[in-house]
């Protein structure tokens, strides 16, 4: 019987490793989620990305200092789809669900009038 690798092990095998600062922030964002079996990783990665985006929205984080957090959220979503790529039958469902989750976060934002 073959053991399913953990998300942490899978991330370590990626050919293109992120820069150190991004990698460190990814590890911090994942915490113990990194020990999740790879077959559960897509949902856990999306959970982590959603949490980061929700936190940025709640904190009205629109400064340059939040850029790394946005990159982390983007990387988590990218890894979610990469980790789930072998399950082609669920790709469309996963994409729709991920889009809905992120859109819900944006729906909570106050609408501001623009003056042109």
Structure description:
The protein is mainly alpha-helical and 116 residues long. The protein has one domain (18-106). Helix content is 59%, strand content 0%. The protein is built from five helices and no strands. It has helices spanning 7-12, 20-30, 41-58, 67-83, 91-107. It is globular, with a radius of gyration of 16 Å. The chain starts with 6 loop residues before the first helix and ends in a 9-residue tail after the last helix.
Report a brief summary of the structure.
The protein is an all-alpha fold and 116 residues long. The chain has helices at residues 7-12, 20-30, 41-58, 67-83, 91-107. It contains 5 helices and no strands.
User: Into which percent range does the helicity of residues fall?
Assistant: 55-70%
Q: Give the strand tally.
A: 0
Largest sheet: none
Q: Give the class from helix and strand content and strand pairing.
A: mainly alpha
Distance between the termini: 64 Å
Average pLDDT reading: 87
Gyration radius, rounded: 16 Å
Oligomer class: single chain
In what range is the share of β-strand residues? under 5%
* Low-confidence runs of at least 5 consecutive residues: none
User: How many domains would you count in the coordinates?
Assistant: 1
Shape: globular
Instruction: Report the order of strands and helices.
Output: HHHHH
The number of helical elements comes to 5
């Amino acid at each position: 019987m073959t053991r399913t690798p953990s998300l942490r092990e899978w991330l370590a095998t990626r050919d293109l490793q992120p820069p150190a600062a991004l990698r460190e922030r990814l590890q911090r964002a994942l915490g113990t989620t990194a020990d999740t079996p790879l077959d559960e990783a897509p949902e856990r990665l999306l959970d982590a990305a959603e949490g980061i985006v929700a936190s940025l929205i709640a904190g009205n984080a629109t400064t340059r200092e939040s850029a790394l957090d946005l990159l982390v959220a983007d990387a988590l979503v990218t890894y979610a789809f990469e980790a789930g790529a072998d399950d082609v039958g669920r790709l469309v469902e996963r994409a729709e669900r991920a889009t809905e989750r992120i859109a819900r976060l944006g729906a909570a934002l106050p609408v501001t009038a623009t003056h042109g």
